[in-house]
Amino acid sequence: MASASVPVDLEEMECSVCHEFFTDPKLLPCGHCLCRHCLLSWLDSQSQAAALCPLCRCAIVECAQQPPKSFEDIAENFPTDLAMASLVDAHRLLLKDHQCCVCDDVAATSLCLQCGDMLCAQCTQAHKKLTMSKHHSVEALSSLMAETIASNRRGSCTVHAGKETELFCPKHGESICQLCAMSRHRSCPEVTGLDEKMVEARTVLAELVTTLTAGEKNLDCRIRQLDEHIKQTEEQAQVAISEIEAVCARLHKSIKECEDNLTYLVDSSRSYITEVASNKKTYLSQRKGQLTTHKRVVERVQDARSPDTVTNMTPKLKKRVVNLDPGLALMTGANLKFCSRLTFMIDPKAVIIIEDGLSKLGQITDVPVDVTVENQEIEFRFHDNHGGNIVLSRNQQTAKRASGIKEGIVLSSDPMVTNMLYEVRIVDIDDSKRTDYTMFGVLLGSPADVTLPETSEDCHSALVVSSNCVYIQANLELTKKFGALNDVREGSRVGVALDAQRNLHVFMDGKDLGTVPMTTPGSHSGKYYALFDLGFRTPQVRALPCRQMI
Q1: pTM
Q2: How many CB atoms are closer than 10 A to CB 529?
């Protein structure tokens, strides 16, 4: 029977650029695929440094190239997703007319998963009886999925048509047939059975699934915490806004009351002064009228020709005018005294105090919130100060040696935290170099204050280990404690951690290989930075999230 397989949506088999089924799908760093020719056209339509995956907008070219590589080189460096290619081929096979490959114009009902031949019912029975095919898996087309076909089909030799791949050549990293083993790969050492290699590969894949599943759960937990944090922030903001509105409403009310009181005070003073002034004005207008009337009388007498009139009226008018007091000499007290002038003044000091109080009415306090999971992780990035032969990715989590074997030192961007493991995964390995040169350790002091030497063994402010020795401030000490580092391979993890007593722990693939006491002067104070030397065997590494040392 066919083995179980994971269903794949049709959309996953379609290129996001051409929207057709994949042709030679290239696996991008983000995990999405593009057809090889679509990848080339996509890179050509954008600048190399700004080329982003059309699905997730992650960078397609992680490391800046020195010198810049051609688009062909970039596409060639990305692995072909053979599993996706097999799925697409299987789906295309199912889309074909279901015609028996033996009989003419007879509908096929079954498919041989090994041969890839469509068979009618009669040919199916014959196929199951033939010596060469009686052990093949033949499935009904009505219930067959592309995933089942892809997961059960044996590979075909790319050199000898029609021959199945049965062996694996580690030197060339490819599956081969028996004829290849006897010809092209005759001198290759350690050619093994493909089934044996499959068992090994499936073990690695199972570990990768476990690692990725744990990572997914870890990130899901963090995302949920961030969602809850965002929700709480929204709720806290609404509460704060309500408080602000309430306080401001109260202040508006107080200010309005203050405005009304001051306005009333001014209006009252104005009304009083205006009323008093108006009364005085009325009184004075009446007095003026009396003076004007008597002036007319005096002028009439003055114009009179009769002596009797003049002599008789003059003393009487004089007495009357004196009593009228035209010079206002007798008008004293309330009859003449005015009210005070209306004067209103805002106290500027009081305004400043109020404004200062309003500016301090409410403040945002930035309180850091840790988003943690059961096993706390710290993001590990490489420092800007690194060897002159090193190229860092944009996120500074991948380091690559451009050429040569020197000037390959990289350091952690932040000081090490006690009991946290600072670890890198070896992305590439060069077994042609000396086997004892996987070197890493710690830098004593800030990277910003250090001029890095060509190799870590010459670094006078570092403690560095390899498989057969320890360099303490460039002084060599032989040891076999870390001999396991000779077994470092592509995909291995190596790292360092400091315990509370400032002992340096050396790790490989999660196993604590031993410790080195930090006996150098000043080793119990100051800061330490993880150090990795990409010289010799390890031309490329990727920083992993720091985790608690177990």
Answers
A1: 0.51
A2: 22
